[in-house]
Amino acid sequence: MAGPPTRRAVRRFSTLDELTAATELEDVTFLEVSGRRLFDRQEPRTEADARTTLSVWLREGDDGTTLEVRCRLELGSVQADFVVDAAAAFTLGAPFELPAELQQQFVDRIGVTVLYPFLREALQGSAAKLGVDTPVLSLRGPGRST
After folding, report:
1. How far is it, in rounded angstroms, from Cα 15 to Cα 12?
2. Where are the alpha helices (H) located in the chain, listed in sequence order?
3. Helices (H) and strands (E) in the chain — how many of each?
4. Chain mean position to CA 105
5. Please, which of 32, 61, 97, 108 could form a disulfide with 85 given CB 3.0 to 4.6 Å?
6. How many CB atoms lie within 10 A of CB 23?
7. What is the mean pLDDT, run by run of 10 residues, along the chain of 146 residues?
């Protein structure tokens, strides 16, 4: 006869260094990569009309042992519109608990830092395929909403 299910201890972190040491990047997945030339507009888009938005989310994986950071870059340049949406999955190997402040630090310093080169490369590839100038992104993401 089986006994009650065993409970795994929940690991608590108090610093980003502790959390970073315990996490391992498991996978980077693209959810969307798209680009569209603006050849059908009656008036060309100006630099003032160009826009860039980077939205970022954090969620705990279904098994309670992973974190997923998702970044969605939407960029409108003078010649084209682009969307790159990607997620990075990090494993902690055991159930965990993170205070809100530590969650935000992880997103800002680890999640976005890991994903940003993937976003940049996908944007560059889309621009090359469309035959338009590659938009130049800053070293670190523009202002974003979480």
Report:
1. 10
2. 16-22, 100-106, 112-130
3. 3, 7
4. 14
5. 32
6. 18
7. 63 92 96 90 63 91 89 92 96 91 94 94 95 80 42
